[in-house]
Amino acid sequence: MKFTLYADESGTHDKAKCYTIGAILVPEQYIARFRNDLQDNKEKYKITSEIKWHDIRTSYNIMNFSIDVLRMILRGPYIYTCIVVLKNSYRKWQIDQENAFYTTYTLLIEHCTKNLQATINANIDNKSDSYPKHHEVVEIIAGFFKISPKNESSTPGFTGSFIRVVQFDRMNNLWIGTTNGLFLYLPENSS
């Protein structure tokens, strides 16, 4: 089975004690229905921009929109999952918040892939980073081994089912560290 994953984060600012990455997984055959229902709700409640959690407390429109979307997700063929990270306990967060965040994103996608035994197309929120296309890196990696539970045998030269590190060197080469070693990502060699 194939799923499309839509994810977003909350709590990555300095004042929050933890951050969360929430994801909705939509079965491939229900993507059009999901998008249409979401758009209908946005129009019904006149939602024109991204909703922030602090807005939910102050706007009945946003609150009712959120309740209806939650109902849509719970009553539909969709799956909601999330990962919550306590920042002061996550050593990597203390050293490099951006790298820690994308490691967490990868862990969440890995968790979904293994538990669903499915191929996942990940749609990652574009957030402000020191490397402005970091979200694309995760999407490239997702596309590179197609976030599939059988990725080890399907992608020559890239082994390991668990990504530990994604890093650019000074020459702007993308290095991917997995459970089975360190690999240089060469887009011209990916299928």
Fold topology:
Blueprint lengths: L1 E9 L7 E10 L3 H14 L8 H4 L3 H16 L3 E8 L4 H5 L1 H20 L2 E6 L9 H11 L6 H4 L8 E6 L5 E5 L2 E5 L6
What's this entry about, in short?
By secondary structure, the protein is of the alpha+beta class. The chain has helices spanning 31-44, 53-56, 60-75, 91-95, 97-116, 134-144, 151-154, and strands at 2-10, 18-27, 79-86, 119-124, 163-168, 174-178, 181-185.
Quickly give the CATH architecture: 2-Layer Sandwich
| Assigned CATH superfamily | Ribonuclease H-like superfamily/Ribonuclease H
Subunit organisation of the chains:
single chain
- The shape, in one word, is globular
Distance between the termini: 20 Å
H-E order: EEHHHEHHEHHEEE
Q: How would you characterize the largest beta sheet?
A: 4 strands, mixed
The CATH topology is given as Nucleotidyltransferase, domain 5
Which regions have little confidence, pLDDT < 50, spanning 5+ residues?
143-156
> Count of helices?
7
Residue-averaged pLDDT: 77
Structural class: alpha+beta
Task: Estimate the strand proportion.
Answer: 25-35%
Number of domains: 1
**Assigned CATH class:** Alpha Beta
